[in-house]
Amino acid sequence: MRETVIVSAVRTPVGKRNGGLSDQHAADLSALVLNELVERSGVDPSLIDDVVWGCVSQVGDQSSNIGRYAVLAAGWPESIPGTTVNRACGSSQQALDFAVQAVMSGQQDVVVAGGVEVMSRVPLGSARATGQPYGPKVFARYDDFSFNQGISAELICQKWDLSRTRCDEYSAQSHERAAAAQDAGAFIDQIVPVFTDSDVITNDEGIRRGTTVEKLAGLKPAFTDDGVIHAGNSSQISDGAAALLVMTADQALNLGLTPLVRYRAGAVTGADPVLMLTGPIPATEKVLHKSGVTIDEVGVFEVNEAFAPVPLAWLAETGVDEAKLNPLGGAIALGHPLGASGAVLMTRMIHHMRDNNIRYGLQTMCEGGGTANATLVELVS
Q: Which UniProt keywords apply (predicted)?
């Protein structure tokens, strides 16, 4: 198998719902990061064999294969194809895995992976607005469970004995870390500004500075009257896009490019679809086993903060030092533009590894239906 590397990783700022990016069409927002990717790397778009693009709500603005229309919106040659992937919240992480598999196997040489979601324009759940997406046999198998992620998050809190206070402490920490990272300029090099008719958006919009457990205590539970989960310890509805340029190490050398990281291993797994959000736990174990890297060797972990109990349950099971977990904050503070989030997290993690000389980074995402991706990358010095 051919050594495969990521040579460039960029993202837009993550916009809050109805915020600075809400007037952007998903194809145009995607085109922005596609063009930034080739501008930074100097790679001629004609060398790109495919664009694999994550998107969850593939209706309205995001229908009709948004990956292909992103290529056309970017002004790239019509000969470059594009396809759209939906593995729920892990869509663009799966897009990266597909891109790597194509390059590693020798079927393709240069592939772009990434994703987009403009949730202000295509609301969460739009694709489920009509019809029954699960089917009677699935409901019968799982005792008519609603497959509501909020309820699943509540069940995780019960199983791992995670109190509202513990979840709120974690959420306040996410905002604190994100604010500190933004103030330190940690995101500047990875973000491409978005120019709108009235403004230029350069920063992630979701950070709520001064968030405290006491302030969060005043929020009403969202899913059960006496529950733990509320808007303040859940991921934010967001807008954004991100892209990664994947190729062989030999191709990077031929093009005079310095790789950021090499792809060491990827894994995807299923888990209990009722608990739904616990897949990152076995996915982490699986990807480490495949790579031969121990958990103690990994210097940073990005575990998507769909809800606070997701990384907290993962933390309880893995025993990882909490300082290594989402050190720049996560989706609770920085937002969760569904189809883009996998690529956003990978972009954030890669730049953090470069800035701090961290050898190994591991990213994992919980996903609707009880699946999860995990990806391990290694810094190229």
A: Acyltransferase, Transferase
